[in-house]
Amino acid sequence: MQPLLDVSNLTVKFALRDTALTAVNDVSFTLGRGERLGLVGESGAGKSVTGFSILNLVSKPGFIAGGSVLFEGKDLTRASAETLRDIRGNRISMIFQDPMMTLNPVLTVGTQMIETILAHKKVTRKEAEAIALDKLRKVYIPSPERRLTQYPHEFSGGMRQRIVIAIALLTSPSLIIADEPTTALDVTIQAEIMDLLLELCQSEDMGLILITHDLGVVSQVTQKIAVMYAGGIVEMGDTGMVVGEPLHPYTRGLLGALPQCADKADCGLADVAAPRARRRLNQIPGSMPSLSDVPRGCPFNNRCELCETVCTTTRPLLEVKSDGRLAACHMVA
Amino acid sequence: MAGLFSLPTNENPNLETTPVGDADMTNQNTALLSLRNVVKHFDISGGLLDQLRFSGGRIVRKHTVVHAVNDVSFDILPGETLSVVGESGCGKSTLARTVIGLYRATGGEILYRGERIDNLNDNGMLPYRTRMQMVFQDPYASLNPRMKVREILEEPVRFHNPGISDADVRSRVADVMEQVGVNPLWGVRYPHEFSGGQRQRISIARALVVDPEFIVADEPISALDVSIQAQVLNLMMDMQEKRNLTYLFISHDLSVVEHISTRVAVMYLGSLCELASAADLFGTPRHPYTQALLSAIPRIGGKAAGHIKLSGDVPTPINLPPGCVFHGRCPHANARCMQEVPKARQLEGGALVACHGVEEGRI
Amino acid sequence: MAGLLKRFRQSYFLYSFLRDPVAVTSFALFVILAASALLAPVIAPHNPFDGANIDIMDAETPPLWKDGGNPEFLLGTDNQGRDLFSAILYGMRVSLLIGVGAVAMQACIGIMVGLLSGYGSRRLDNILMRIADVQLSFSSYMVAIFLGAIVQMTFGVGRYEQVAVPFLVLVIGLAEWPQYARTVRASVLAEKKKEYVEAARVIGLRPFRIMWRHILPNTLTPVLVISTVQVANAIMSEAALSFLGLGMPVTKPSLGSLIKSGFQYFFSGSWWITLFPGVVLILLVLSINLLGDWLRDFLNPKLYKD
Ligand SMILES: Nc1ncnc2c1ncn2[C@@H]1O[C@H](COP(=O)(O)OP(=O)(O)OP(=O)(O)O)[C@@H](O)[C@H]1O
Ligand SMILES: Nc1ncnc2c1ncn2[C@@H]1O[C@H](COP(=O)(O)OP(=O)(O)OP(=O)(O)O)[C@@H](O)[C@H]1O
Ligand code: SF4
Ligand code: SF4
Ligand SMILES: [Mg+2]
Ligand SMILES: [Mg+2]
């Protein structure tokens, strides 16, 4: 069966003053209908740009330099403006970290929701209002009739994000791209929003691409994880396997750096060199290179303990390893 | 002239200070720092014209006050890491800034090794400046962009040691830079030439050059990536060991707090809910809010939807609810909770909990 | 030094400057004008202030390319027979001197007041800002008329010529400092919330040191931007005051007083006496303003579209 989304060899560059910077480097993944994928990585790893380029929304100095994004069989990198308009916000919805990127502060929530429906569906105002109310109930907004007439600033941060999710649901999309939807929220509210997203994806059979840097959050919500580093995917596979027994040295380092794992030793990292003192965390030395000077060969080679000569000369490709998982590393069998 | 430059304070002389409550249990002499019923309010009414309201046919002057920290008491013991957790806006930063003297407390007392420091002026505070230092959240805003790293680090040394020779200043700064893992040769660079993690190291170095014994760290790792967070946390723990530092550590990342703290204080809407040793608090949380908070931590490999759902929204600290500040969202609230403010009480085992339910044995 | 030069050559500043033809053109124009003003004694074919050199017989000679033009007087002469080209060069010198001087004065007062107002207590802020409001509500012309009367009374009309330059610097400087004070205050208010200022306070530094060493250097970017605009404004103000007879005397002309002195001959056919100083004035002010605009855009990348 045809997957919902098939991204292959996607490359996005930004034209800078004298060079081009590769923000997304040869990224490929597929997403089945109703499947949930987590895209994790550090700041600047290229997660957001990947999310935007799926919708062909990379802004100015940036451009899609290669690869394709097949959504329900259509290649969005080559689609006409009209096709894209029909797909954005209709078949694929996006949720951002800051709810105010989606909400217009001077219009009531009701107006914004109804306009969105009317733009994509041939329904009357009455029907549109009914749909809006229905979606507000789905995201557990109390007394939705009254809330429809309120402005975004009258809601708390968590409520606003729920409204944004309701707006994303309006057109019953088959894919939601959520870019750090809970980073600005408190843990208790984050837990609620994540519950809600998970529940909705399951009940509506929606696909989800969850972009975040929080491994805890993705591990609870998604079925697959792709770990990004310096613009490329370094490891991808079943969520339980990736967080349970990470293959790639970067993923292992990242998980080892989490206090949760240092305390509990239940993250399958028993073979990672034991921390010196009990309380010390496992740290990866150095920091991610800026995308304008990624080292030759493996982009992780200047921080990697296992680095060998081949790592400094040849870039490892994302390939299937012994247990069926994908990793980009020369040293992993 | 000094008067014109004093910090804008929101001193409220009429504020009642309640007598030291049950919270006062630790021996005064052993505490490094003691907070006694500390209150901090911000008057946000603006100018005179903004304060005037028309009500009941008359124009009245009305103050809008943010009750950021309300009646918080606890002790910080030498050598420990005391963490403060709680959701955004619950007053963690305000508490930290009041302790370090950036804000003047509206009420209550702060004692450093038994001496009151909350009512000192700039000069009186000076000796404490080398004993207490602060590390900030934002690695981009906390270093002056127009000063070279060496200037940033040398300034406190020169200021607190007038007459010190240039060579001494240099070697002292170079020492500390070495310790925090920043090459002393990079001292000639400007902050923007460093990554976030390196800047946070420089920030820590700035706190350490005056050789303090107590450091307030307000979310020192929140702005950093996971792999960098581990580096900075390790550095902080190493420094604590090497220099026998005491930390007041503020964070909203509960798994980090669990890892590095000796004791943990949980705040909600400006009030202290629970204070216990880290193992105790994370093992057997007693306060309903602590329970809800801890259940929401996204555990790796854990399942979603296992957390305690709270109803309602966080009230604003401008209009505090009467009684227990948590009663609107607490699953165990009863009539008493809506009227009477719960006092922090010590349980067997040393945990402090401010909750009627726990006191009555219902929870 | 060589390293600094190299860094400058590779800097983004130079790069984006060179990519903007308007900025390059206006910079070139400004450099030519300013250099010829500064080097007036070297370049100018005549010394317009040397009475021995001036022949009233040459008065109102038209420019070179007109009938009756004299190759000795490139742009013609004024009503007293002074070489207009030389007079413009010397006049531009006076205009620039007053413009830069006045702005230096505005900046000194304004930065001081802005710092105190932004970093001091709320009461001090209120007092200083009300004073600034009062100052702004007087136009520079009122200040000039008022002070002019006093100065001319104390020094006598005869010696006014000698004190005219410092007097105009004072008048224009006093009239416009609130612009600086407001700009500086606004950025002090923004800077003072930043954590590096709190860090300085935790170290225990005194307020004055924090203001000078930490806050002031971080507020200089907007100061630089308004300074260019203010120099242009000050030159314009000076020209206007001189045109109204409140500025430089005709014996020691600025561009403004040159325009004024020729104005009465404008319709009697000797249009060049007014036109050429006018054109130079416009070019000078325009080039400074365009440079200022570019600088503002460069330092404030948020304004860039796309
Ligand atoms: N408009 C732009 N112009 C130039 N470079 C850009 C632009 N947008 C993104 N980039 C580059 O692309 C890289 C990836 O950015 P991206 O926003 O995808 O990171 P991210 O993984 O989402 O990080 P974060 O966690 O901080 O959101 C960045 O390092 C940045 O250098
Ligand atoms: N300078 C100030 N003036 C007025 N109100 C303030 C000021 N600083 C803080 N507040 C208010 O006091 C309350 C507590 O704020 P505080 O910054 O201490 O919260 P916090 O717990 O540190 O939150 P966060 O996790 O978001 O940093 C908030 O409601 C805030 O709006
Ligand atoms: S390819 Fe080499 S350098 Fe890269 S992660 Fe694997 S072992 Fe490390
Ligand atoms: S005092 Fe009452 S409302 Fe407050 S936490 Fe305890 S049980 Fe809940
Ligand atoms: Mg992003
Ligand atoms: Mg805070």
From TrEMBL, chain A:
Q: Which NCBIfam families match?
A: oligo_HPY
Task: Give the Pfam families listed for this entry.
Answer: ABC_tran, oligo_HPY
SUPFAM superfamilies named in the record: P-loop containing nucleoside triphosphate hydrolases
Compartment(s) where it occurs, according to its Swiss-Prot or TrEMBL record = Cell inner membrane
PROSITE patterns per the UniProt record, alphabetical: ABC_TRANSPORTER_1 (PS00211), ABC_TRANSPORTER_2 (PS50893)
What InterPro entries would the database entry show? AAA+_ATPase, ABC_Ni/Peptide_Import, ABC_transporter-like_ATP-bd, ABC_transporter-like_CS, Oligopep_ABC_C, P-loop_NTPase
What are the recorded GO MF terms, alphabetically?
ATP binding
What's this protein's name?
Answer: ABC transporter ATP-binding protein
User: What membrane topology is annotated for this entry?
Assistant: Peripheral membrane protein
* Main location (coarse class): membrane
* Residues in ABC transporter domain copies: 5-255
* UniProt keywords, alphabetically: ATP-binding, Cell membrane, Membrane, Nucleotide-binding, Transport
Kindly indicate whether the keyword Ligase belongs to this entry. Answer: no
The source's superkingdom equals Bacteria
Similarity comment: family membership? Belongs to the ABC transporter superfamily.
- Keyword match Cytoplasm: no
From TrEMBL, chain C:
Keywords for this protein: Cell membrane, Membrane, Transmembrane, Transmembrane helix, Transport
Question: Mind telling me which InterPro entries this protein's record contains?
Answer: BP-dependent_transpt_permease (IPR050366), MetI-like (IPR000515), MetI-like_sf (IPR035906), OppC_N (IPR025966)
Q: Which residues cross the membrane?
A: 21-44, 94-117, 138-157, 271-292
Q: Does the keyword Membrane apply?
A: yes
Q: Which domain of life is it from?
A: Bacteria
In terms of Pfam families, this protein maps to:
BPD_transp_1, OppC_N
Q: Where in the cell is it found?
A: Cell membrane
**Which first-to-last residue range defines the signal peptide?**
none
Task: Identify its membrane topology class.
Answer: Multi-pass membrane protein
Instruction: Using the UniProt record, give the first listed, main subcellular location.
Output: membrane
Give residue ranges for domain ABC transmembrane type-1: 92-292
Q: What name does this protein carry?
A: ABC transporter permease
